[in-house]
Write a structure and sequence with these properties.
The protein is of the alpha/beta class. 29% of the residues lie in helices and 17% in strands. It is built from 19 helices and 22 strands. GO terms for molecular function: RNA binding.
Length: 677
């Protein structure tokens, strides 16, 4: 990897406007914490400021306001309505991350969501001409108290006699130029306009709706909108650092020896403190995310990154590189302090397209001379490891051809794959479950993924095959016919790191290859899937896969035998920096071994002895088909017929979707939803 050919001309800084806080002082104490120098917010007994740096009237604190005859607002829980669009929200979050990582003040960073929805912006003229303008806060607090008090009085006078009236409440304010802008809901805004012409501290007030809305709201998409002058300058200088270290011809970002960069040293952003260095790198990655918006832009602009000579002994400080540029082809980690693969393990399963990895002049070359095979397993496209060819393009092509997805011999009665997504997942999942469960978790699971295992004894078994002991699974089994208390069920509903703990305790397995008739698979798309990251109202398009099959199990004492299983996966879109899909839910049901029946055609139904997805015969009436699904769902979930019917109706009588809904909602179901033993 060659170093950059030379610096590029610095780009002009984005222009932005500063929003002045109405009280002119920082909010409470600065943010801080044990990591990153971000101090916790303290309480202020004087004025409450919202995240935009403006006076927040949503909550009234005892003793917060002073002044003779001033009326306190009793509306302590004003509804915030509307949600900002995704781009505005992500841009605002980027601004806050930049200033937070730099230890700056985020109070002036705007949030578009605060000024959208059922709110009205009013512009008030007259404060500067009043006697209150000489107050320490410019008269803002007295003006707001006056407006709320007078508007509430007018509202009370115009209401029916004896009817209790909710006080008028101002949500936030901003002094800018000759105007004071205030935000209130539509009803309260109408009452506030009625007191236009009232005299406040010797000056006549002119109150009207703002034609342009909240100041700066239209600029929420601007990456610099609301940033202080110091933050804008810092962002501009960091962008120039990135541009100077980026070679557009070779698509190389040279982030080597950041501790010696004169600009970063001058700014004090890459000192000897590991926390400062880590935060600086995170800010640089945030700026890269802002510069390259889409995965396609990132792939086209960035192929190589050098992190050499940064005294790295772990990838933790620079882990965000994998999330920012997941399709990186060349990575240089030379001249650092990596001494074992454990220090690189967090990147395991990432950079799935990596072709070159340089670990030259790291202690790992001496301490773990046999690290090559494991690193090759981590990165399937790796060809060059520390300037040694470990694979040729031809070898990679052959390996890919061997791993190419072949049609699964036995499909179920409802096999509707999309672009081979289901088959690709299955073919990759089970070999990893047998050989490398940690890598499997890193590839398809995250902190939102859920896993359950259930031992089911009441199904037919083959007479000539001994039943393996159930002891390794019983403490984790979530069979609702056996586990009836809510607490025990929740305890057996594993998520995130808990899944890894459980998988390490499960026996070793060996699933048959997919060129045998050992599986029956159903899969189809699933609409409206809840997305834990973006939380879109419509949900995401996912997929549900139900498999019936067998595997060889080896227990801790060395004994082995066959066991049957049913496994249902709900797949959804991946998180940033990972593959295309993630496991939302993984439900494993274990049975005594009973071989699958032979299926002569792809549409033949699965016999009931292997706990299939119900597929009523064509001769049955719709009512009879629904009745069969109702009985089967009750059998599987232990819900009453009434609740099973509600579940199926909610899923529009799609059995697999009903199972997925049940899995998602069962922790919240009342006790009467289940058949009592």
């Amino acid at each position: 990897m060659a170093p950059p050919t030379g610096p590029r001309a610095g780009s002009n800084a984005n222009s932005g406007r500063n929003v002045r806080s109405t009280n002119g002082a920082p909010r409470g104490s600065s943010r801080g914490g044990s990591r990153g120098g971000i101090a916790k917010r303290g309480r202020s007994s004087a004025v409450r400021i919202d995240r935009d740096g403006d006076l927040d009237m949503d909550t009234s604190a005892a003793g917060a306001r002073s002044g003779s005859g001033a009326s306190k607002s009793t509306n302590t829980s004003t509804r915030r309505s509307g949600r900002a669009s995704a781009p505005a929200k992500s841009t605002s979050r980027l601004q806050q991350n930049i200033t937070r990582h730099l230890g700056g003040d985020i109070s002036q960073t705007p949030r578009a969501s605060r000024v959208t929805g059922n709110n009205t912006t009013l512009a008030i003229m007259g404060l500067k001409a009043s006697r209150a303008a000489s107050n320490s806060d410019g008269g803002i607090r007295s003006l707001l108290e006056f407006l709320e008090k007078k508007a509430t009085h007018v509202k009370t006078t115009g209401s029916e006699r004896g009817r209790r009236v909710r006080p008028v409440a101002i949500k936030k304010s901003l002094a800018e130029g000759d105007f004071v802008y205030i935000l209130a809901n539509e009803q309260d805004a109408d009452e506030l306009i009625k007191i236009s012409g009232f005299t406040f501290a010797g000056a006549v007030l002119d109150i009207k709706k703002s034609e342009t809305g909240w100041p700066g709201a239209d600029n929420a998409q601007n990456g610099d909108a609301g940033l202080s002058t110091a933050a804008q300058d810092t962002k501009m200088r960091l962008q120039q650092v990135l541009e100077r270290r980026y070679n557009v011809e070779t698509k190389l970002l040279d982030l080597s020896a950041l501790g010696q960069d004169p600009v970063l040293v001058e700014m004090g952003l890459h000192s000897s403190s590991p926390e400062t260095a880590e935060k600086t790198f995170q800010v640089l990655m945030k700026l890269c995310q802002d510069l390259f918006k889409t995965p396609q832009q990132k792939r086209e602009a960035m192929e190589s990154v050098s992190l050499g000579a940064n005294a790295l002994a772990s990838v933790n400080p620079v882990f965000s590189l994998a999330e920012t540029f997941p399709d990186l082809k060349h990575l240089d980690l030379s001249n650092n302090q990596f001494s074992s693969l454990k220090q690189l393990n967090k990147w395991r399963g990432r950079f799935r397209r990596l072709e070159t990895l340089l670990l030259l002049n790291n202690p790992i070359i001496q301490t773990e001379p046999n690290h090559t095979s494991e690193v090759m397993e981590w990165f399937p496209y790796l060809q060059n490891l520390s300037n040694v060819v470990v694979r040729t393009p031809q070898q990679i092509a052959i390996a890919l051809e061997k791993a190419k997805v072949k049609d699964i011999p036995q499909n179920g009665n409802d096999f509707r794959d999309v672009n081979n997504l289901g088959q690709n997942f299955i073919v990759e999942f089970f070999p990893l479950f047998d050989t490398n469960r940690d890598l499997l978790l890193q590839t398809f699971y995250d902190e939102h993924s859920a896993f359950t295992v259930s031992v089911v004894n009441g199904v037919p078994k083959e007479k000539d095959t001994a039943v393996l002991p159930w002891a390794p699974y019983l403490s984790f089994s979530r069979n609702h016919q056996r586990i009836t208390t809510e607490g025990a069920r929740l305890q057996r509903h594993m998520k995130g790191a808990r899944i890894q703990e459980i998988w390490k305790q499960l026996p070793a397995t060996q699933h048959p290859s997919f060129d045998t008739n050992k599986y029956i698979v159903d899969c189809h798309p699933l609409k409206g899937l809840r997305d834990p990251v973006n939380r879109s109202i419509e949900g995401e398009l996912g997929m549900i896969i139900t498999m019936h099959g067998e595997f060889t199990e080896t227990q801790s004492n060395g004994s082995s035998g066959l066991r049957s299983f049913t496994r249902t996966f709900v797949l959804g879109p991946s998180l940033t920096g990972r593959g295309p899909i993630r496991v939302v839910s993984d439900m494993l049901s274990l049975h005594a071994y009973n071989p699958l029946p032979a299926i002569t055609g792809p549409t033949q139904a699965i016999v009931a002895t292997v706990a299939p997805t119900p597929a009523p015969a064509a001769a049955l009436s719709p009512e009879e088909q629904q009745q069969m699904m109702l009985i089967e769902l009750t059998k599987r979930t232990n819900m009453t017929l009434e609740y099973s019917r509600m579940c199926l109706e909610g899923a529009e009588w799609n059995f697999d979707r009903a199972l997925a809904i049940f899995e998602e909602k069962r922790a919240a179901l009342p006790a009467e939803a289940f058949i009592q033993a």
